Amino acid sequence: MAYVVPRPELTLKEKAYLPSIISGLKITFGHFKKMLQGKTKVTMQYPEEKWDAELPEYYRGAPTLVKDDHDRERCVACQLCEFICPPRAITITPEEIPAGERFEKVEKRPAEFKIDMIRCIYCGMCEEVCPEQAIYLRKDYAITGITRAEMVHDKKKLYELGGVFKGLIHKWNPEK
Amino acid sequence: MPFLTAIPWEMIAWAIGKAVFVIFLVVLPMVSYTVYAERRVSAAIQDRVGPNRTGFPTTLLGFKKDMQLFLGGLGQPIADAVKFILKEDFTPGGVKQFYFWLAPCLAMLPLVSLAFVPFGSSFLGEKMVIADVNVSVLGVFAVTGVGVYAIVLAGWASNSKYPFLGGIRSTSQMIAYELSMGMSIIPVLMAQQTMQMSHIVQNQAENGWTLLPLWGHGLSLQSWLLLIPFGISFIIFTISVFAETNRLPFDLPESETELVAGYHTEYSSMKFALFFLGEYTAMIVGSSLIVVFFLGGWSLPFIPDGQGHATPFFQSIFGGLYEMLPNWFWGLVNITVFFGKVAAVLVFFIWVRWTLPRFRFDQLMRIGWLYLFEIALVNIFITAAILAFAGK
User: Fold this and answer.
1) Nearest residue of B to residue A45 by CA position?
2) Which of A4, A98, B55, B119 has a CA 20 to 30 Å removed from the CA of A130?
């Protein structure tokens, strides 16, 4: 059934249009003034102001490798992270720990551990899958480089970013 | 050339000097900084920051950092210009070459009409207007009228549907508003009894601004009654200037949501930049017309003109002070006052642009033909009645 939508009756003031222009100008001027007085605070001036303090605990930044209290690299080169990595950003070259070294008992360690940060999607699966809790996603997010080669993090760089992670591995922690 | 020898060389030198001063030292920088102001003001109105990074590129000269003055981003126009120059100048196939190239050249034509605008009182005894002809009002309107050809030619020569629609819209819009613009200014000309813009401003300096008759002959019943038609004229003229310069409530020729970019869709690089700058030049011309006709041109009541004469009231108070400083100084102050007023009107332009939404095309036509034109016409008769019956 057809029905009629009544058109609103405009008063003379509304028809004249100028008063509403003036009220509109007032609104925009209000915003302008607040901005000049510095009352509006919306934009973060990025390189000068950073959000780092507000980053949540669970923030997923760049993946890094960590060492334990005894300066042993936790990674045992099981390559689980390499297999789970959805964009295949991780490449591990395992090697045997030669006899006579301090951590000979661990048997295996990565000779080279590469994460291509152009490929990495920061999903955190490597952290989740790691049985030794050797790889962690840290809060670094500004990963930049001029060349592709620069964007591949090697073992040295990964330990540099990761540092030392104290305490038991959860796997061996009776409280967990 | 015999006709050149008949003209004294000082006159030629002054004319060239004034033209160079106005166009290259004042208006073109003003154009580029209007673009910057537009971006900053619009940003502030929309609670954003706007371009605040680009400094003057002192790093090119070997310094460690770019120079940042006052608020950041003042180097933005330079960066924009470099970008426009370095971009590929692409001419699409199927365009009408000659007119395609002609249109952006015509877009900068409003610059010519600045020749008629008095931008100062006098400086070292020379009137501060490039061409002080006795029909300068007509001259300005004639030159700005040609401005529509830039858009029409661009729309037609592009051989593409959206520019074409933009061109058509622009034509009908300009015709509609050119009329009410011309009509609305007639009451002012009737009261001033002259078509020479320098005289109009001189009258306002002596007898009160068109919209502020507070001194000289302005303190009469007639001038106060005339405020009614002048106020109407002012509103109509301002609206028409908005329409003429394709500013936002009336920017149908290039409405992005409907026509991609309107008449300059097919243009790139410096050719596009010329349209862009032409729009802002037209804005400056429009604002200087508003200033000249309604806001007293270069005059401020408490500042004397280039001969050191102020309004009698302030002359009696500060008379000694005026004589202490040389007349050329006051001439310079007048020029500054004029461009300051123009800048204020420009900010108003920008402010309105970021306030109002665009009109629908039928609304635009109705406002132009049914309201503004008629009101302007009636306004002339009201002015005539006041001039005839309410004596001085």
Assistant:
1) B49
2) A98
